[in-house]
Write a structure and sequence with these properties.
Blueprint: E1 2-7, H1 13-22, E2 27-33, H2 37-47, E3 51-52, H3 55-59, E4 65-68, H4 72-84, E5 88-92, H5 99-112, E6 116-119, H6 126-136, E7 143-151, H7 166-169, H8 172-175, H9 177-188, E8 192-200, E9 213-220, E10 225-231, E11 244-250, E12 253-259, E13 263-269, E14 275-276, H10 285-297, H11 307-324, E15 330-331
Parallel strand pairs: 1-2, 1-4, 2-3, 4-5, 5-6, 7-10
Antiparallel strand pairs: 7-11, 8-9, 8-15, 9-10, 11-12, 12-13, 13-14
Amino acid sequence: MQQVVLLGAAHSIAFKMARGVEQSRSLKLFGVYDENAALRNEAAQRLGVPAIAEIDTALACTPAIALVGSVPAQRADLAQRALESGAAAIVDNPLALTHDALDQLIAAADKYDRPVVTYQPGRGDPMVLAAWDAYQAGRIGDLVRVFVNGPHKIRPAKRSHWHWTRTGNGGILIDIGGHSFDFCCWFAGAEPDTITAFHANHNWPQHPEFQDFAQATIRFTNGVLANVEQDWLAVDAMQSFGDARLWLQGTKGKIELYMGDQTLAKIWTHQTAGEDLDLSPYPGVDAWTVKLIEDLAAGHDGDIRQHQVWRPTRAALLALDSAQQGGAPVAWRP
């Protein structure tokens, strides 16, 4: 069986990625590395694998895949170390917190000819896949606008110190915005042209580097517009941690998805109004995760092409640039 290592266990998503290995018939989790002894020991016990104190030891098993679930500031570096060892890397969002870190990772992927994928479980959600297939089938015509909304619960008592800092989590547009930018770039199917964004801190003056609300607008080279709205303002009474919305507006109809306390996946066209999308053909996020990991281990691209990894990461970074400049439009750069 091919070996997989977990590099970092600072976020719950690390365990969702590891579960994909556990459910695979061709892959085995070798162990978990984290520079934080408490995190690695807890994760190792939870996963039933060895705790590894040195990254060189973790990578000495010549893994086919490295799952990167460390604190955000370490992810690009750990992914690069994985590439150097000959492994592909699947990295929790956000992939990189600075342009320099992203540039170095792109260079490493080119040099070692190994893929890097940001883990985007939304791409395996049956509602999102049903929306994608309906759009690809031409049911709403040409795409005009993508709107993605992603409220999250803040739960401050569970937040580590790095969560509140620019160097720790990158800011709201990068931290939780990365998933939304992925949806926008994926559905638009083109490079961005310009990006404009704003962010603000309404509730946390004691954390001046933190933002709890942000908006961004992307104009793509094919004329599609995308709007992203993120916040840490979801109320405690909500049952779900997030309360995402996805709205695809086309020239002949629209698709709306609710992915939170309310779930909804409907399409409106000139022929039908509020028709439920058929979700039955899609097995779910867990099955999608297993397939993604197995495909990469086998040397295949998987469902996420390499340019689809770099593009939303760069878009999030440029959105932050715009927000830090008071909303000034920022031109796209690869």
